[in-house]
């Protein structure tokens, strides 16, 4: 039994040390990812308008887009504008209409360009939002792994056989 105890303690200690090292690395990567997202969004100089926002977006009025949550909210703002401009039609639908009209309808060409730009902007903002969510996950997992690693090392230490000189 003593040998099994030692093996279990060694295994727990080794896994604990690995997790206690991996956790802070994940915490650092999560934080640096957040800084990078904030810097990129700030560089875009996107600001919510002071007026004209739908009721659910009013709390963002006049604020710059600097976080993933704000990027997500701004993408909803763009979607509302895009829906009004295109009658709720997507780029692909407008393109199909343009082709059906022989490809020469100037109004559909302009509408297709509007849809393309709006959907591209939304996709970029949604990518920032998704990256923001991933940094939240990585940071949370880093904290959990750090705590688990420390707990496993402590458990391994408690399982270690005590020598007469060791308290």
Would you mind describing this structure in some detail?
The protein is mainly α. The chain has one domain (2-159). It has four helices and no strands. The protein has helices at residues 2-44, 68-86, 91-100, 106-159. Helix 3 (91-100) runs antiparallel to helix 4. It is elongated, with a radius of gyration of 27 Å. This is Aromatic ring-opening dioxygenase LigA. It comes from Streptomyces sp. NBC_01393.
Task: Output the keywords.
single chain, 167 residues, mainly alpha, 75% helix, 0% strand
Task: Kindly summarize this structure in a few lines.
The chain has helices at 2-44, 68-86, 91-100, 106-159. The chain is mainly α.
Q: How can the largest sheet be summarized?
A: none
Estimated structural class: mainly alpha
Strand content: under 5%
What is the 3D shape? elongated
- Secondary-structure element series: HHHH
State the share of residues found in helices, binned by percent.
Answer: over 70%
* C-alpha Rg (nearest Å): 27 Å
Parts with pLDDT < 50 across at least 5 consecutive residues = none
Query: For the terminal residues, how far apart are their CA atoms?
Result: 21 Å
Number of strands: 0
Supply the number of structural domains: 1
The chain-level mean pLDDT equals 92
Protein name: Aromatic ring-opening dioxygenase LigA
């Amino acid at each position: 039994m003593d040998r099994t105890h030692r093996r279990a303690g060694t295994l727990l200690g080794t896994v604990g040390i690995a997790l206690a090292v991996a956790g802070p690395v994940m915490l650092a990567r999560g934080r640096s990812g957040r800084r990078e997202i904030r810097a990129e969004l700030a560089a875009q100089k996107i600001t919510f308008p002071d007026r004209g926002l739908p009721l659910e977006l009013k709390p963002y009025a006049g604020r710059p887009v600097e976080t993933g949550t704000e990027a997500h909210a701004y993408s909803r703002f763009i979607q509302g504008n895009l829906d009004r401009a295109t009658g709720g039609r997507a780029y692909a639908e407008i393109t199909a209409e343009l082709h059906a009209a022989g490809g020469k309808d100037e109004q559909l060409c302009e509408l297709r360009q509007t849809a393309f730009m709006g959907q591209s902007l939304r996709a970029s903002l949604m990518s920032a939002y998704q990256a923001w969510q991933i940094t939240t996950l990585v940071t949370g997992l880093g904290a959990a792994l750090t705590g688990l690693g420390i707990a496993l090392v402590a458990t391994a230490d408690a399982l270690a056989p005590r020598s007469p000189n060791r308290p």
